[in-house]
Amino acid sequence: AQKITQTQPGMFVQEKEAVTLDCTYDTSDPSYGLFWYKQPSSGEMIFLIYQGSYDQQNATEGRYSLNFQKARKSANLVISASQLGDSAMYFCAMREGTLGNAGNMLTFGGGTRLMVKP
Amino acid sequence: DAGVTQSPTHLIKTRGQQVTLRCSPKSGHDTVSWYQQALGQGPQFIFQYYEEEERQRGNFPDRFSGHQFPNYSSELNVNALLLGDSALYLCASSMLAGKLNEQFFGPGTRLTVL
Question: Which of A76, B22, B54, B78 makes the best surface tag, with the fewest CB within 10 Å?
Fold first, then answer.
């Protein structure tokens, strides 16, 4: 079974509008972390935002926020006020277990290509 | 403060050859993980090194091996290259017992096998 599922292969958004990128995950471990990365055409994975399974509030980082619905096992990324520079691949990833025990291995989804229209 | 660095940037090899990729972690990080990203897919975990030992391994054959040095830098070696090994190889650094959200990636090495 897929541990991380991103159902949107590609999405368009108008500049200055908000967009939501979907991510669902599957784990039986009560302790886990969810990451979102941006990958421009250059290839580097740029860290955007993190949500821990025990965090009470949804994570926010500038224009990025994470809509964390634990019961539904979803961790959608919301980008507000889209910019042309936001055009890139976006990956959701999960780390299971606690650091030191399970290490820091990340499991990635297949990604969503976001294209911002001027 | 230098981030994660990788070398070389690009590499072209032929089938059957061997290749070595290099990674220097972010300052203060002691753990290095390697990922393979085939075109159009998400990264796949290869293995992770901590204290110069392989701590975790993904579903990759023994042709993929690695090493971590006392200064925490790491090498990824791939023997008997196959066409299917063509991919972007990403290195990520973190602290094994550090902040939960720290997992920083380097720019990657793009390997082409002809």
Answer: B54
Please give the DSSP secondary-structure letter assigned to residue B39.
Answer: T
The C-alpha atoms of residue B72 and residue A80 are separated, in whole angstroms, by 38
Q: Is A86 helix (H, G, I), strand (E, B) or coil?
A: helix
pLDDT tens digits, residue range A20-68? 999 999 999 898 999 999 999 988 899 999 999 999 899 999 999 999 9
Report the SS3 class of residue B83: helix
Please state the length of chain A. Answer: 118
Q: Which residues of B touch A46 (CB under 8 A)?
A: 105
Q: Please state the length of chain B.
A: 114
Q: How far apart are CA A21 and CA A76, in angstroms?
A: 6
Residue with tokens 């006392």: B70
Q: Rounded to an integer, what distance in angstroms lies between the CA atom of residue A38 and that of residue B50?
A: 26
Is A50–B100 a contact, with Cβ atoms under 8 angstroms apart? yes
Residue B84, phi then psi, degrees to nearest 5: -70, -10
Over residues B1-33, the pLDDT tens digits come to 679 999 999 999 999 999 999 999 999 888 899
Give the rounded distance of the alpha carbon of B32 from its chain centre. 8
- Residues facing A34 on adjacent strands: A51, A94
